[in-house]
Amino acid sequence: MKEIPFSIPVTGIIRINGNVITVIVNRAVTNVTLDPEAESPGRTVFEPGKSMFDIILASAQEFFRRTGYNRFTGLDLYDIARETYPGLNKRSFMSRMTAATPN
Question: In the sheet that 20-25 helps form, which strands lie side by side, from edge to edge?
């Protein structure tokens, strides 16, 4: 068996129209439709008008109501906040809590 190397010039066009991508190579046409992805399941969405700082404050008030102590750690508040918002990101919560803490 003998092998003979060769090359074929190929020209192509890619057209993007909304969520439809058309790929044309020489005379062959292929359409690809992209379906929009659903919302990320790991992202926590708060009620309108509610921020992370409101969640931190509510968690601190709940901690005080449960224990009667006004000293707490970030993990204490994070555990309480996760009861209401199970998808809450720990890093985001802790960084916002650090930003909200006075000197």
Answer: 12-17, 20-25, 28-33
Q: State the angle between helix axes of 74-84 and 90-100 in degrees (0 to 180), rounded to the nearest 10.
A: 120
Task: Look at the pTM and tell me if it is higher than 0.70.
Answer: no
Task: Report helix, strand or coil for 29.
Answer: strand
Question: What is the per-residue pLDDT across 34-77, written as a single tens digit (0 to 9) for each?
Answer: 887 665 555 666 778 888 889 999 999 999 999 999 899 999 99
Contacts of 41 (CB under 8 A, 6+ apart): 87
In a 3-state reduction of DSSP, which class is residue 76?
Answer: helix
CA distance 16 to 22: 6
Amino acid 34: pLDDT: 84
Question: Tokens 């068996």 sit at which residue?
Answer: 1
